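[Solved] Which block belongs to which protein?

Original post:
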Amino acid sequence: MNAPELPGSFPYTRGIYRDMYRGRLWTMRQYAGFGTAEESNKRYRYLLSQGITGLSVAFDLPTQMGMDSDHVLAAGEVGRVGVAICSLADMERLFEGIRLDEITTSMTINSTAAILLSLYVLVAKRQGANLRKLSGTIQNDILKEYIARGTYIYPPRPAMRVITDLFAWAGRELPEWNTISISGYHIREAGSTAVQEVAFTLANAIAYIEAAVRAGLPIDSFAPRLSFFFNAHNNFLEEVAKFRAARRLYAKIMSDRFGARNPRSLMLRFHAQTAGSSLTAQQPDVNVVRVSLQALAAVLGGAQSLHTNSRDEALSLPTEESARLALRTQQIIAHESGVVNTADPLGGSHYIEQLTAEIEAGAKDYIDRIDAMGGTLAAIENNFIQSEIQNSAYDYQQEIEKGERIIVGVNKFRQENAVPLRTFRLDPELEKQQVDRLRELRACRDNAEVLRCLTLLEAAARSADNLLPHILAACEANATVGEISDRLRSVFGEYRDR
């Protein structure tokens, strides 16, 4: 009879650490960012005062798409779904009074990840931080943008080059930094099943790893800094099993397929966020219950980091009160529920073990099919992954509309004439302030130095040189996110979905 698998041992089904939360709780983050850097800084300071243990930065759509706040397509979107960051000055204002060497920061940014990480590094450097001790995560996951989200700029293959350049540079300069957060979250938000979320996330991971190995990086030189980002959805037991299955399958892939030998290369470390797509505008207070169950599933599944959504996010950006309540949800689970007293509390349950095996097998079958197509890039270019998600999303919605799947307050247990919740309102003047400040920056900086740095960056993009030192130099010269992105567009082109 085989000895039972222990937490902290290969293939890490029961958790990547022996003691799990007995040794250290997960990092409690609250995803936040809106308006200008000053407005977001106030929210970060508030959340820190309420007990968060890590920052999580949301950027607005223009920043995500490599456009400055005064771009014609940015009108009406500046600061709306995240903070507007155009320059080093903006990034300094965003973290004013916050020591970056004393906090971990997660930045949800992909197409412009190399630029925003460079800005963050420059702020830390100006604070006097030891960059080799700087800790945090940059999402930097472009493949899921083509699959599920849409904030891409360049075609997939040059976009992958930027990512592997970041891997190589950060491996030398920022050894404690997580260089990618491979995201299943947005895949699930787009409508995938739990099995598809695991499968497509790990298929993307395989593509990134293969690209890095082709670029000459030894597997154990970068794999320990890979991290993941998963959704915590409504089906409680399925979600717990999903996290366990993902860990086990990843460990086997890293060991058997890539020959990784460093134990840290085999450990799937993940951040979880409760399911935004499950939040309802109807009876928004009920979202507190949904989020609590989803957060508990993430903890029972062994998350290293967690964000809990606020009750009002189906209506607006969260108010301070709602963000505080969402954080308190994590704190109650951590300090009052008792679930942190043992690793993998549901391990050994017949149903959980069966679900874990089923999800692992289903995900592996998808990965085998993607391999047979020529890998993830080919599967994306052939629209296979996108079609699978779209079909699942359609089936899910049909179940709701037919009443086969109950959503409380939506298709059953409705409440008429409910008292509306007080929601957040963004000051429309903030966009004008951001645009005026950007134009002032362009007027006052050394534009000859900016031009020189951008020209060198373009030359590097046309060669095989690592792009990060050139992006860093351009950022330090006060080139903007849009200007740097435009230089790379001039070389790489722009992706157009079919």
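(Second protein starts here: sequence line, then its structure tokens.)
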Amino acid sequence: MLYPLKFKPIFKDKIWGGRKIKTLLGMDYGELPNCGEVWLVSGYDAEQSVVTNGFLEGNELNELVEVYMGELVGEKIFARFGNEFPLLVKIIDSNDWLSIQVHPDDELARKRNLDHGKTEMWYVLEADPDARLISGFNQDVEVNTYQEYLKGQTIKDLLNIVHVEKDDVFFIPAGRVHALGPGCLLAEIQQTSDTTYRLYDWDRIDAAGMKRELHTEEALAAIDFKKTSDCKTQYETELNKTTSLVASPHFVSRLIYADQPVLKNIIELDSFVIYMVVEGACSLKYEEGKIGMKLGETVLIPAAMGNIVIEPDGKLKLLEIFIDAARI
């Protein structure tokens, strides 16, 4: 019988990465000089999550999707996505500006023989006092104006720069130009894709004295040049309630804020559920046992499971992530 699954983290060395994944989250990334990303739940190509608990220990995520199909991910979700797990969940630690970038949507991805586009969201775990990010343009922009600013290395002047604080939520649809700035530690939920078009990389030089590849021509067809307004998701929490954050065809995210046990009926969703602790700690109690979770950890709940009881250890904030089967 399926049960809540934990996975081995996949750590990524990035030129802009920091050390908060180790110092704040307690994750050991070994000999890496820094860690920009840790992939927590991934069915992406050759970088799949591997189970670390129970009788399925050692199995890759997509192997389990192939074997258990709708029992693991939900019947409609399996019919739509087949043997590839459809979401990628990670934590990002930005110690410097990431490249200014954009992702294609599903339609453009298909035209370019890519599997999926990339729509994503960010939930901020911690932020330095001066932390900022970029989300879209600060005005409607003509293509030729964009190209002039890009060539003149002043593209930042056209972009919407936003102050970042703990618990902020940002929805980044495919086509929106964006970049994380220094001092952001956040959870990212996205479609299973690693397609990124870099527009500008701050003239940065890597350890080998090289600039990273840019994708200025490929990006043109992907970019939404309209002004971005209200890029920060507005929400209000209430203790011992579940609050909606993002509801898109690609994924749904909610925030559980609780200091008392919370009962969740998983099977009624016809979807897997990913839980991720963004503040505090908890246990997930199910019919056959209990599994603990601490800050930054994720657990994948199979779609065929019944009731889950979330037992907070003090005050808890927990992301709840799934796919709305009616919208795919």
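Accepted answer:
You had them paired correctly. Confirming on the second one: The mean pLDDT is 96.
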